[in-house]
Amino acid sequence: MTAEFIYPMLIKLLKKWKAIVIGIALFFPTLLPAAESLPVGLFSTEPAGTGLPQEWEPLTFPKISKHTEYSLVVEDGQTVVKAVSQGGASGLIRRIQIDPESWPVLSWRWRVTNIYNAGDVTRKQGDDYPARIYVTFQYDPDASGLFERLRYGAAKAIYGDYPPAAAINYIWANRAPEGNAVPNPYSDKAMMIAVESGDQAAGRWVSERRNILEDFRRVFGKAPPPISGVAIMTDSDNTGESATAWYGDIVFRRR
Hints:
Distance between the termini: 52 Å
Largest sheet: 7 strands, antiparallel
Number of strands: 14
Number of domains: 2
Structural class: alpha+beta
CATH topology of the largest domain: Jelly Rolls
CATH class of the largest domain: Mainly Beta
Shape: globular
Helix content: 10-25%
Radius of gyration: 22 Å
CATH architecture of the largest domain: Sandwich
Number of helices: 3
């Protein structure tokens, strides 16, 4: 049988099997396994030296002109994000909507060269971390009072979008006890949770796993709204110190 007859037959078979699979998914959805992970930062699949990771964008702040440098590099045979901060601050953010009830667990790995001597989670002058991952939560004007709607509306008029309703910062602190949760000194809408503390693990990769659903309920006392973004940041603008950090893949999981 020649190719001119074989190819049309294969196409017909593929279309037929595609229709069968779609039919099974529609009528018997439980027979197909649900995905157990939702990657938001698959840095390991990116080629090194190509700029920023796909779907991630710079996160900068008013009045801070010196920014952290981010790049895709190969470390220990795998592509990761490298961050170098020398008295500056900026981050990378992936704007993405995620239901924390469906995807409550966040996992990642990171590495830092050092902690900051002047770092202090309770003071504005010490609000710097060699590595942090923070999760933002969506603002809902329909669930807000008049004063808050006016405040968020003014912010939207300036920046083009609503600020997050809340945020959780997972930080590599210098002295705060691991698991300690305190409000950010700039805003009580952002809670800081120390997942690493001190320099005992500096220089090596550390894997982390946090239940965002449980953490949000613990620090804010209520159920979380939808997640609106995930960011990484290495900053040193307040302390004037310097550090280098590396961030591996960031993934949400069902459990």
